[in-house]
Amino acid sequence: MTTAEPGHGDEHTGAAASADDVRGLAVSHAGYTLTGLRAPASPGEQGELAFGITDAAGAPLTDYETSHERDLHLIVVRTDGAHFRHVHPVIDDRGEWSLPFAFDAAGTYRVFADFVPAGHGETVTLTTTVEVAGGFAPEPRTSDATGATVDGITVEVEGELVAGAERELVFTVTRDGEPVTTLEPYLGAYGHLVALRQGDLAYLHVHPMGEPGDGVTEAGPEISFMATAPTAGRYLLYLDVQLDGAVHSVPLVLTAGAGSTDAAGGATHDGAHDDAHGEAGR
Predict the structure, then answer these.
(1) Alpha-carbon distance 242 to 14, whole Å?
(2) For residues 99 and 37, is the Cβ–Cβ distance under 8 A?
(3) pLDDT tens digit string along 177-195?
(4) First-to-last CA distance in the chain?
């Protein structure tokens, strides 16, 4: 089993996270703003997805710290949870990020920019929306899905999410009924997990602790994460794994239960770690 922990971010202890603790819900945060978003206007239109990040003075942000092998991670997902994509744009000398892009279907999409400004020391997650014209056929997630198959790769998850309490999630990867033990490094790990709270798409981002080649972490079939849901409710999970040079994104769904509370109003974690490392915005 691969031991794991989340990436950078705030640690929440005690009761479940308040609304102020949850990231990925605003276009501006911590003095940084996502600006000038441009994107294709209709499904199938080949174009460019581009945007900038500005600092508190309104100047373009051009200096970033590398996190998980990239200076910026971009998540694009429709508001019903469908059509998830995790991509990596490039930055020009003016501070504009861009990449070729086309939407598969109409609807309202959320765009998350996840990055660490140089010298800031913490991950910032900014978000905005894009309207893609055309007939919209929603694909709502109405129940939990602890297993799914994409491109012949099956992923099953065991474990539970609990509001305000750290819990382990173990993902098992198989192909054609056989355990996969040849996972390839992707962004410095054997798995990459994004979780979005259904409804407002509050953003959580976790990563394994172990690293490929560290002599301890195995290349499958199990990948473990420690995660904390900020509140009770349903969460949309997207596990990215790489095999044979291709990245596959497998969608799953879990519902987080409400954490119990003690007389003082703090969450009791039933023996779990007191520090809740799951985060909104890595």
Answers:
(1) 36
(2) no
(3) 999 999 999 999 999 999 9
(4) 23
